[in-house]
Amino acid sequence: MNFARLSVCREFANGLRACVLPLSKNVVELRCIFHTGSIHEGQDLGRGISHMVEHMVFRGSKGYPGNAASEAFAEMGGCSLNAVTSCEFTMYQVAVPPEHLQKALHVICAMVRYPEFSAKAFEAEREVILHEANRCMDRPETRLYWKNASLFFPTHPLRHPVIGYPDLIRSTTAEHLRAYHDRRYAPNRCCWVAAGPVVPEQFFSVIGELFGDWPRNMTETPAFPPDPAMEIPQRGEIVFPDAVERVTVSARQTAAVAASPGCVALISGLTASLLNRELVQKKQLANRIEPLYGGIQDAAFQGICGVTAPDRRDQLERAIVQQLTDISEGKFTAADFQREKRVIRSLCMEQLEQTASLAQAIAMTMLHSNDPATAFDDPYSGITFETFREAIAGMFRPRRLVICRQLSREPRKKNTIPIVMAPEPAEWTLSSGVKAVLLPRPDRKLCTMQLSWCGGATTDPAGKRGLNSLTAEVLTCGTRKLSEEAIDKKIDQFGAALELRSSMTRTDLELTAPRPVFGKVLDLLHEILTEAVFPEAVVVREARILQEKILSARMQPISAGMRAAFTAFYGDQPQGRSRMGEPEEIAGITAEELRQNFRRWWHRDTFRAGFAGNVTREEADAWTARLLDGVDWQTEPLALPPNATLPEQPQHATVQVDREQALSLVMLPGPLLPGSPDRAAWKVIHAAENGLASELFRSVRDDNALAYDTGFLMTGGFLFPGELSFYALTTPDSAERAETLIRQEIRRLQEKGLSSKEFQRAKSCAVFHLLTQADQPSEHLSDLVLLSICGRPLAELQVLPDAIRKLTQRDVDRVLAKALDLRRSVAVRAGRF
Fold it and tell me: E strands along 97-197, which residues?
């Protein structure tokens, strides 16, 4: 589709710009972006005022006092209202049903143009922002990033965290915010984007009515001081307790790279790809290699972050420096370049199939350009192997490098357009005897396949917890004919993506590839499934990586708290196991045990093949027959554990985690089996208890400023009922109070149910979420495959929106009264107590 030709733009007399991309979709994606961020805060640099303003527009504006704006969006079904602040822009983003577009524009106009900045509301919200700052800085990756930024930008405002410093946040007043808003929020720094079923002239008319009389602000942004050229390498360290350590090696982006936007992504992808093969797979010095990027167009740095165990950190650092130096000197092949170029172009193509991604791309393009059509340009078409080598030449020279390390402890030496509904899915038995599911999407250029088996953490044998998780990690790491590197290269050459996920009761394999090469990718997958060898060296490597990943997760409040809750809830029963396994047991798993476990997965009754995209039923049948030819089918299905026996009395647990933030969580039994007559009601309850307008959010965050993050989780739902969890991320000294508020909310729901207002807006939100999911084929397919495995008709998913619409408030309140029993709850606090 020629999106550049379809997009329609308008610039108003006061400098405000707007762009519409008309599409036949279920949802309108709106973006309102202001060219102002943390680097524009002037004498208030480091306060994080841009971010505070973003928060406060949700806390009251003209015509929408308090959290009325959030409630307005909840009532119109648009629960995906969100905002983001960066170093150079602030963006408000929302997805709404088409019939509520005009109302949404009025609400956002009130928020961004007429915020109240109530001193009382700001006193409470400032505490919430401090909680968010704690959460951000409770991640080693975040702290390491800002250490890099401080070395690259000793004078540029980019050296300061977007969210600000806690001491300066505490000293900020509502007057600071009001002055910044008056100075920086202006129509000549604002642009609007709408993508979806929108009539351009109608959209422009409403925008003109709402913003046409907003006067320009001619205050100029002062020039940023240039940072001195780097003549010697820079080094920095942070100490952050974790099971693993991190090394970053990066360099300032050169003018040649900045002049070619496509080069930025290609450098990140190429270096990460080459270093993963060399340092993770071959030399086994790292658990993973990730690209590192920061800054803005004319002031940016780029490099690599490697994650490893403490005893391999120094060796990894030397290896990364050598590899980046080699790349900077052109020591990579044309095949490497072409492979990465194909992969990135395939990812771009996939993003252009998502309405939200299209809206985001236009908004980001309009930040620096009046021509949104460039959002759809192919930034890689003009980049050849030769021009890429010239652009990257000398970028990672040793004297230009900045090396930062995150240590796990102090070193000893220191101290009107028609809406197109999702097509009807189909289920049938293939000629191979396997059941298949098809979600036809003839408009897609990509094909997605999902294979699902019964077999997850609950089926791990005694003493081998982590067997299924490790099997999924190693399965694609070599066959009788192909090495791990050869498999990776082939997948990259096809522009495909292959992922295996092992959960509590099943394992899923998801494959996405462009349609023209899908058959060839299936041939490769056939060899993996029928000729996998589970190399001993790879098993040892992946076992170590999995162990370190588990240990790292245990040092995070959410992961540690959930693990403690499962243990208290289920005891030694299989349903309480960690999905990834136990490190001490993973260490003893052999390659032969993985081979045997892989064979246990294959039983026709519990195996499903699902397809989504431009695929016909005949093609799905032929492809599956080809894929499964030679598979060693088992005669006995994998035995799943019986339903768990749950505690009859309340349980309590406290977990010590050395973090600034803390988790308060209350877990209850969850009646979440597929096919449950209450499934529609739980969709509504989930919508009611999440989001900015939820009572849980209002009570814990808005009224008491105890947490940045609150929510309601529903886990399980596949062959066992699962769990319901209410949580808040807070501080250790506020954890008890947060738990009290969570319990109050549970009692309110059980005794009184939802209010009429909550119920009506939650119904709209729940239906809206399902319609949004219909635009995401891979997510839709996953739910369909799950229904098929559970023996439920696919129609259950298709009729779910209508079932939600027919619900009465009494229906939902009845479900709440029956399910929410604090006498069978588990309460957990995880943090530094």
Answer: 190-196
